[in-house]
């Protein structure tokens, strides 16, 4: 059975076009990119305790780190912007922790915050937050590309993939032959893949 292929998990979370706009100082593009990383920043910052810093302070540092990643990212790099941005946030928070270690009582990698997480968790988290970000962005992009299809193309995509109904039922409902329903679905999928840069 033909299925919609998932976008490669190593693909860009943000388009090169959006990154380039942000690098040229487009405030909306910068804000859009930063907003996409907010869930990751909050989740990461909740696992950290640094004396004298509130959660909001750490979140702000995370947001500034994303802006720093935008400015420093080379669009011809072989790895995704998401990977670079996630690494930048973690590196900046880790540097802050190192800087604040003025005494044993200041901070410890095994210090536990009020959520029960140790600081060491940020260095080797069991959660693959980067994959979560990529997956959410892929879903958003898929829905955006589906919305660009014609009414008839969207209809058959939702019928088959989202409502889990058969092409035989679709053909009967629309008063067309089964072969025409198959071709209609195939054409919609081909167009969707082309829009998503898969072919």
UniProtKB/TrEMBL annotation:
RNA polymerase sigma-70 region domain boundaries: 34-96
Xref: InterPro entries: RNA_pol_sigma-70_dom, RNA_pol_sigma70, RNA_pol_sigma70_r2, RNA_pol_sigma_r2, RNA_pol_sigma_r3/r4-like, WH-like_DNA-bd_sf
GO term, biological process aspect, one: DNA-templated transcription initiation
Domain of life (superkingdom): Bacteria
UniProtKB keywords: DNA-binding, Sigma factor, Transcription, Transcription regulation
UniProt GO MF annotations: DNA binding; sigma factor activity
Pfam families: Sigma70_r2
Gene3D superfamilies: 1.20.120.1810, Winged helix-like DNA-binding domain superfamily/Winged helix DNA-binding domain
NCBIfam families in the record: sigma70-ECF
Protein name (database record): RNA polymerase sigma-E factor
Organism: Clostridium magnum DSM 2767
Taxonomy of the source species: Bacteria, Bacillati, Bacillota, Clostridia, Eubacteriales
């Amino acid at each position: 059975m033909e299925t919609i292929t998932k976008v490669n998990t190593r693909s860009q979370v943000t388009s090169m076009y959006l990154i380039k706009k942000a690098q040229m100082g487009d405030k909306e593009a910068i804000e859009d990119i930063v907003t996409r990383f907010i869930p990751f920043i909050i989740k990461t910052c909740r696992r950290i305790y640094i004396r004298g810093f509130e959660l909001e302070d750490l979140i702000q540092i995370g947001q500034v780190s994303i802006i720093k990643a935008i400015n420093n990212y080379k669009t011809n790099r072989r790895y995704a912007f998401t990977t670079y941005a996630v690494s930048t946030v973690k590196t900046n928070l880790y540097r802050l922790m190192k800087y604040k270690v003025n005494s044993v009582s200041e901070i410890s990698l095994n210090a536990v915050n009020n959520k029960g997480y140790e600081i060491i968790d940020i260095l080797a988290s069991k959660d693959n937050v980067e994959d979560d970000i990529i997956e959410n962005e892929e879903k958003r992009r898929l829905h955006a590309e589906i919305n660009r299809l014609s009414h008839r193309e969207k209809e058959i995509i939702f019928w088959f993939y989202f409502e889990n109904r058969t092409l035989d039922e679709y053909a009967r409902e629309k008063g067309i032959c089964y072969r025409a329903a198959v071709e209609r679905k195939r054409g919609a999928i081909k167009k969707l893949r082309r829009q998503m840069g898969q072919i």
